[in-house]
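BUG-103 | component: ligand-complex export | severity: low

The export step for FE2/S2 (inorganic) cluster jobs runs without errors, but we want the raw record kept on the ticket for reference. Input record follows.
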Amino acid sequence: MPKVIVQTPDGAEHTVDAEVGLSLMEAIVDKDLPMEAICGGCLSCATCHVHVDPAQMAWFEAKTEDEEDMLDLATNVTDCSRLSCQLKLEERHDGLRVVIAEE
Ligand code: FES
């Protein structure tokens, strides 16, 4: 069960024990952390925006064009921006660090 360190916009860090196969968004929402994820993971809202630790960006597949398009509508976008509903968690993601992006 990979552990993910999630920083919320207030600066607090939370350890999330994520089930393999869940998306990062699902793991964050299951832990009741502040993430709207309005569309439930169907890539039509960008309210699951996170910043991935720069050293860990390569842990995931590159963004699809659809994810890029949704991120174009988000605020506070950086080179480390991802939509967490598109990041499937595997055992090898243990130690992942992300920050929930401020809107
Ligand atoms: S939850 Fe809507 S795009 Fe990720």
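Assignee comment: Attached the raw record above. The beta strands are 3-7, 13-17, 49-52, 81-83, 96-100.
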